[in-house]
Write a structure and sequence with these properties.
The protein is an alpha/beta fold. It contains 15 helices and five strands. The relative contact order is 0.08.
């Protein structure tokens, strides 16, 4: 049987792999006939030895190779000299000579079209490139996924869910599983998404940063204290605030380069809704303000980790006040308030 090459979105790849192995009856194979090999630790003689062996008391032998093509990504686009794959140059010639009883499957994450091993294997493999859906296709995908879990879902709920999660299919699957159980057979509505989806915590971080940028420390502190009450530790909160500030910096840079809103979402790696809100934050932040806020964040993190502030609540309050103060209004104020004497 021919080799299979499945690559792209990791969730879709995993689903297609399950389907392929089930159709081939590989799920019932003896353990001796199932092999999973890590591409980064594999050499060609080892792979050929496994693939050329006949199955033991079974109809086929499954050989699953993960991440092999990714090891060749750095060779992409280096010019004529990059065509040599070393020992892997011989793999394409060896595949047609393998026993019909060998089911050889290569799986990888996203690959560039110029990947030399991908080009080499295409003529001798059944290739499937799987990409996460976007736009209307994503809405259709969410609706079908909800139906598979026994629930209908309203257009407003789909819009809210995809705004929060984007096309992260692993998270979509997990959150739809949770909210469909919550809906208990009825149609999933927007309110269900707002009550159940875990990204609401991240939204609280976003809104807290928004409040700090607008000089509303009391609002920011209230939002972050709610997270603390839900069990979020200070290091987690600091890391999430840092992530949002980093997105704001990137958004400011790319908006100054005049990228479109659609391009901005892709460059930030976030859903369009989040990209729009982050761009709005970026427009209200000067580069000096962003630099100062980053410095204050670092000082607060170090003060807590080195024991200069031994109370998470006090450290959080200091952080919020510092980040909410504009550069022109006390930006040089030391961040050591509340340190041990």
């Amino acid at each position: 049987m021919p080799a299979h090459l499945i690559y792209g979105d990791s969730f879709l790849v995993s689903q297609q792999l399950k389907l392929l192995t089930a159709e081939a009856g590989a799920d019932t194979l003896l353990e001796a006939n199932r092999h999973q090999l890590a591409g980064g630790q594999l050499n060609l003689p080892e792979l050929l030895a496994v693939c050329n062996a006949l199955p033991f008391m079974d109809t086929c032998r499954l050989v699953l190779v993960t991440g092999l093509l990714a090891t060749q990504e750095s060779r992409s686009g280096r010019g004529r000299g990059s065509r040599s794959l070393g020992e892997w140059d011989k793999l394409a010639d060896a595949i047609p000579l393998m026993p019909e009883t060998t089911l050889l499957v290569f799986v990888d994450d996203a690959l560039s079209d110029s990947n030399p091993l991908l080009r080499s294997l295409q003529p001798v493999s059944l290739v499937q490139r799987l990409q996460a859906p976007t736009g209307e296709n994503l809405a259709r995908y969410v609706r079908e996924m909800a139906q598979q879990k026994g629930s209908g879902i309203s257009p407003a709920a789909i819009r809210t869910l995809t705004d929060l999660v984007g096309n992260d299919l692993w998270t979509l699957d997990r959150e739809l599983e949770k909210v469909s159980l919550y809906a208990a057979g009825r149609n999933i509505e927007e309110q269900d998404i707002q009550e159940m989806v875990a990204q609401v915590r991240e939204a609280s971080i976003f809104n807290a940063v928004d409040a700090m940028i607008d000089g509303r420390p009391e609002v920011a502190l209230r939002l972050l204290q709610r997270l603390r009450q839900d069990g979020a530790a200070l290091p987690y909160i600091i890391s999430m605030v840092e992530r949002q500030l980093r997105l704001v910096c990137l958004a400011r840079y790319w908006t100054e380069q005049r990228v479109s809103p659609q391009e901005l979402a892709g460059k930030l790696g976030v859903p369009p809704f989040v990209a729009r809100k982050t761009a709005e934050q970026a427009r209200r932040n000067s580069w000096p303000d962003l630099d100062r806020r980053y410095q204050r964040l670092l000082e607060a993190d170090l003060a807590f980790k080195t024991g200069r502030v031994d109370s998470e609540d006090l450290a959080l309050e200091m952080l919020v006040v510092d980040l909410a103060t504009p550069a022109s209004g006390g930006g040089n104020r030391p961040a050591a308030r509340g340190r041990r004497s």
